[in-house]
Structure formats: structure tokens, C-alpha cells
Write a structure and sequence with these properties.
Oligomer: single chain
Number of helices: 6
CATH class: Mainly Alpha
Largest sheet: none
Number of domains: 1
Distance between the termini: 22 Å
Number of strands: 0
Radius of gyration: 14 Å
Shape: globular
Structural class: mainly alpha
Order of helices and strands: HHHHHH
Length: about 100
């Protein structure tokens, strides 16, 4: 049985998706605010590694950067942001189209 990671094109496919999503987010005036104060220079690579692992790929994220708890801590404590969440999901949907 094929994993979702494999179905997305493996490492290269998930990397393209992370790059497309990141570009969409940066262009969105609401979602882009979350990254407007700076982000790690390897944000796209780290995001791709996180998504790859979550989708059944290699454990690169956990092996190199941290675990799910690390991600939750990094993204918590900012209160509710329903509109930002909706727009981030829309960016993801559009990124899926971008990468075909």
C-alpha cells in the first residue's frame, strides 16, 4: 500500500508543495503576518520535512529538529485566529493546484 507521502511525489513532491504553500502564505496579507517578523532561513525545508513525516515519509523532522511537541510549542500561545487558519488552509488548497 502506498503512503500519502509517496502519493505526493516523495521528498521532492512534498518540498514543491511546501514551497508553493510558503509563497502563497507570504503573498496573503492575513496569513503572511505570521511570518512578517521573520522566519528560519530553512523554513520551507523544515516544513517539508515535517509534512513528509506526518504523511508517512522518513523521520527527518524528528531526527533533526524536534518532535510534535516542539511544533506545538512553536505555534501556540498566540490566541485564536480563525480567519488566519481559514486562509492558511486556502493557501494550502491553492498550493496543491500549483504543484498539480
Amino acid at each position: 500500500m502506498q503512503t500519502v507521502f509517496e502519493a505526493t511525489g516523495g521528498k521532492d513532491g512534498v518540498r514543491r508543495l511546501a514551497d508553493a504553500w510558503h509563497r502563497r502564505v507570504m503573498a496573503d496579507d492575513v496569513v503572511g503576518h505570521a511570518l512578517s517578523h521573520g522566519f528560519h532561513p530553512q523554513h520551507v525545508e523544515r516544513l517539508a520535512a515535517y509534512w513528509a513525516e506526518a504523511l508517512g515519509g522518513p523521520s527527518t523532522y524528528s531526527d533533526s529538529y524536534g518532535d510534535e511537541t516542539t511544533v506545538v510549542k512553536m505555534h501556540s500561545g498566540n490566541g485564536k485566529h480563525d480567519e488566519m487558519d481559514r486562509r492558511a488552509i486556502a493557501c494550502f488548497d491553492q498550493a496543491l493546484v500549483d504543484v498539480d
